[in-house]
Each structure stands twice: as structure tokens, then as C-alpha cells.
Amino acid sequence: MLCRSFALKTTRKFSSRLFVRSSLLSFSSRYVRRFMSEPKSRTIFIGDIHGCLSEFEHLLKKLKITPNDEIICVGDLIAKGPNSCGVLKLVRELNMKSVLGNHDCQLLFCGEHLGFIPKGSCTLPSNCYGDPSKTPEHLELAKQLTKDDWTYLLSLPLYLEVPEHKVLVVHAGLVPGIPYDLQEPADFMKIRNIVNGRGSESHNDGVSWVSLWNGPPFVVFGHDAIRRLQTGHDWAIGLDSGCCYGGDLTAFIMPGREIVQIAAQKNHCPPTSPIIPQQESEKINPNSSL
Ligand SMILES: [Mn+2]
């Protein structure tokens, strides 16, 4: 019942309100894309893959994807899982879209640090990047990427609008009440909570950003594996169901609002924070329509 009321309520709101669009941008337009496509049979949003190539392949097989499907990833394609390069290759070959996740962003920074991409390629504010010496996995991964991988990563936006479905795709989230172009770029990639009106990576202090998000648009996001799949919001859905931590890889399909999942083959890496236990009421049938 919870899921059904979610779908009906959201549909009604969409039909009666205008979709917000970004206008002037205070940071490089390279990080923003408005995605206009030919009508496709399905738009499939995929949660954080984190190098879990095998689960990714199984999910695509289960989805029975066709060239008419538009596939959009919520970022963090790489790191933590066993085959980041394979994921990048498949994402490129199947012409998938994605937004930039915090790990993708750090990989770019490591690539610049090691000279694989030109100095000045990483133009986001400094709080979007970490010290490369403290991210050895990303440094090692940078040595394995192809030129096409770098070109693809450099093309990823911080947010992506899908007007056809009145959807905004971001990796982590945004601060409610602030226009997209005035958001902190780091918030798009790292936010979990709002603390004293500002974005925070914490999941303990303040409240989750999504609990304050009243839409429109409907936001599809990832990053927050600690809270697992988040389907209980009217105006957003969180798709990071922690595949790399032994959870699931999740796809959300529009139209229809169907959820399709593949269970992780194994626990690929230990979680950095304890996973918040999922409430019984939040559990869903892995192939259900919301
Ligand atoms: Mn992330």
C-alpha cells in the first residue's frame, strides 16, 4: 500500500506543476547536461555500480535491454568492486549516460595528478577532491584507464535533467530550496544530510536532504548505501543498495516505476560506515512496480 500511494501521489503532482529547469550556471557548463532524446521505449536508471561488473552484466541481462532503452547511471561507476575498467568499457560501449560520482571525480583528480589528463582538467572547487596519496585505489586504477575511459569520465555532468520523465539525476543529492546553479558542486556528489541549512556528508547529524525535498522534479540519486534502497519518498528515489558491500544492484525503470534488482555475488569490500538496518515496511519485492 505504501508503494502504491507513493506512485499515485507523485503522478498527480507531476501533472499539475511545472518542472524546474536550471538557467544560468555559476560553474563550468561542462558539468551540466540537459538530456534531450528521441522517444525511447524505457528509461532505465541504475544505482552505484562501483566496479561490480558481473552483477552489472546480470542486471542488464535480466532487464532484457534493447537499443531503444535509454540507460542512465547515478555515478560511482568505479572503485570498491573487482572490475572498474570493465564497467567503464561496458558503459561506453552501450552508450549509457551517467552523472559524476565522488569516486569518479577522485579518479579524474588522480589522473590529472599522474599526468594522464592535462593539468587544469579538474576545475571543480577543491572540496570536491581528496589528497591522491590517500586514495591509493584510485591512483592504481588511473594507471589502467584508456584514452576513451578518460574522455568518457571528463564528459560526465554533476546533474542531468530528463524532461521526458520530469526527472533530475544527481549522484548524492542537493540542498532543497537552492537553485541548481547555486548549489555547492560537492553537495551534488557527497551530500547525505542537511545540518544547519547546509549540506553535510554525515548521516548522523541533522536530517536527510531527501526528507526535506518536496519536488518537483523527481530526483533519482545514489551514493547513500548506508540507508540502502530508498523508496519511501514522494519526490525522490535512492538507488544505492550497496552492491559492492554484498547488497543489491538496483535498476529503476520509467515509465512504470518498476524496480529490478540483482543480488551481489559476494561482499566485495567492507562498508565504511555501518549499514542502517532496513525497516520491514521498506522491503520490496525485487521486481515490483512502485
Ligand atoms: Mn558516492
UniProtKB/TrEMBL annotation:
Please give the residue ranges the record annotates as the region Disordered: 271-290
Per the record, its GO cellular-component terms are: cytoplasm
At the top level, the lineage of the source is Eukaryota
One GO BP annotation here? polyphosphate catabolic process
Q: Which InterPro entries match?
A: Ap4A_hydrolase, Calcineurin-like_PHP, Metallo-depent_PP-like
| Ranges of Polar residues composition bias in the record | 275-290
What this protein is called in its record is Metallophosphatase
